[in-house]
Write a structure and sequence with these properties.
This is NAD(P)H-dependent oxidoreductase. The chain is of the alpha/beta class and about 190 residues long. It has five helices and eight strands.
């Protein structure tokens, strides 16, 4: 089966609610790196805390919109910080909502990529391991073998203008996005 040459649609989910987060700056830079992809921001801000008592039918209205946003894109890129050596609670909550109902969950079978930025020197290694573990439990197709950790991010962005300025980081991020685009094609052949 030949890859589809139409423009791919990729949802960008930022695992932080902070308006001026470094990860939000990185996510904002991604669309300019690959013109063959149409990116759509998918917000977590209105999602209620996961409660199985509320998870019937389409769920609460913000959950319905969130699940529909995931369903209408070809893939999801998660750009997330690391909080206390792990996954941010707001992101885990969103992934829980996207994991139900079981066989029709929005993220089930969805090509997914992970990017993370932190002021620390180790990148977001621990957070991404936990995110990957959750995504695999959901049965999302996480881009294998590729990692995109951005350490010491404060030296790679212009925080005042909210821009990614480091050319080396841009180069690696662009390569990651291109490989993710190829992964979307490969996942389509798996199904």
């Amino acid at each position: 089966m030949a890859p589809d040459n139409r423009t791919k649609k990729v949802g960008l989910i930022v695992g932080s609610l902070r308006e001026h987060s470094f990860n939000r700056m990185i996510a904002a830079a991604i669309p300019e790196l690959e013109e063959s992809i149409a990116f759509e921001s998918i917000s977590l801000a209105e999602l209620p805390l996961y409660n199985e008592d509320l998870d019937h039918g389409d769920g609460p209205e913000p959950v319905r919109r969130f699940r529909e946003a995931i369903a209408r894109v070809d893939g999801i890129m998660i750009v997330s910080p690391e909080y206390n050596s792990g996954i941010p609670g707001v992101l885990k909550n969103a992934l829980d909502w996207a994991s139900t109902p079981g066989k029709t969950a929005a993220l089930r079978g969805k090509p997914t990529g992970l990017v993370g930025a932190t002021p620390g020197v180790k990148g977001t290694i621990l957070s991404q391991q936990q995110i990957r573990q959750t995504l695999e439990a959901i049965r999302a197709h996480v881009l294998p073998f590729e990692k995109m950790y951005i350490s010491q991010v404060m030296d790679k962005v212009d925080a005042e203008r909210r821009l990614l300025t480091d050319e080396t980081t841009r180069k690696y991020l662009k390569r990651y996005v291109q490989r993710f685009s190829l992964w979307i094609d490969q996942v389509q052949t798996l199904d």
